[in-house]
Design brief:
The structure is a single chain. With 66 residues, this protein is α+β, with helices and mostly antiparallel strands. The chain is built from 2 helices and 2 strands, in the order βαβα. It has a two-stranded parallel sheet with strand order 1-2. The mean pLDDT is 89.
Length: 66
């Protein structure tokens, strides 16, 4: 979250092939407006944060280390 609560970066771990990861992020991006509205209602904020989805590769790095 940025200090003014207008932008939020959401890190997502996706297991699967590159095509599946791409499809997952496309789906999340298309749902961002709906998720933003739900978030605004549940948090009762005047301005809901703009959601930006990023890949979290922690699981892949951990597997590579093992």
């Amino acid at each position: 979250m940025t200090p003014d609560l207008r932008h939020a970066r959401v890190f997502v771990s996706v297991l699967g092939s590159d095509e599946e990861k791409k499809a997952t992020f496309e789906g999340l991006t298309s749902l961002a407006g709906h998720l933003r509205a739900r978030l605004a209602k549940s948090l009762q904020l005047r301005v809901a944060p703009e959601l930006q989805f990023k890949e979290d590769d922690t699981v892949a790095r951990a597997a590579r280390i093992e």
